Amino acid sequence: MPIYFAVNDPSTTPRLLTREQSDSIPFSSSKLSYILELISLANGSPQALAMQQTLKQCELEATPGETRFCASSLESMLDLTRGIMGMVKLKALTTNIHNLSNTLLQEYTFLNEPLEINVSNMVAWGENGNIVDAIAVCHMDTSNWDSDHVAFRVLGVQPGSSPVCHFLPADNIVWIPSP
């Protein structure tokens, strides 16, 4: 199965807000019009639609066994992570694309097999010579997922019958305890 990693320009990728900045913006779909006006975005623009979808996802109820939280700042993300994992030393993992070319999407071949663990770091070699240190995560219990979830159709499995693993794009973060 071909795997494609979108190549994002770090200089144009939005950065995380500080707690002070995020606390000044209401994080609610009922306040979307106000937020769009505050940051000068047109209703119906691609950015506005992305914000609407994000807020909708963040307001969904957590499924049993899931912790659902949408961080609005780096500090709030760390607060939640430490609340779950305790006051341990943390390490942030991200997918890292090396040797960026002008090609936005490239097909990659993975050099090692995934292990049956929750978070795995894998290396991929791109068709243009790019190398990706890819982060893969596995959802070990999918029994409470919607049976129509796209992962089940792609993998040909049923909820709860198999872990579902996927790669994270370069702008996602996974926190793990660090020795």
Describe the structure.
The chain is of the alpha+beta class and 179 residues long. The protein has one domain (3-25, 72-177). Helices cover 24% and strands 23% of the residues. It is built from five helices and eight strands. The strands form two sheets. Strands 1, 3, 4, 5, 6 and 7 form a six-stranded antiparallel β-sheet that branches. Strands 2-8 form a two-stranded antiparallel sheet. A hairpin with an 8-residue loop joins β4 (105-110) and β5. This is BURP domain-containing protein. InterPro entries: BURP, BURP_dom.
Structural features:
179 residues, 6-stranded antiparallel β-sheet, single chain, globular, alpha+beta, 24% helix, BURP domain-containing protein, two-stranded antiparallel ribbon
Largest sheet: 6 strands, antiparallel
Beta strands, count: 8
What radius of gyration results from the CA coordinates?
Answer: 18 Å
- SSE run: EHHHHEEEEEHEE
Overall shape: globular
Please mark out the parts with pLDDT under 50 across 5 or more consecutive residues, or reply none.
104-120
- Which range best describes the helical content: under 10%, 10-25%, 25-40%, 40-55%, 55-70% or over 70%? 10-25%
Strand content: 15-25%
Q: Given the helix and strand composition, which structural class is it?
A: alpha+beta
Number of H- or I-type helical stretches: 5
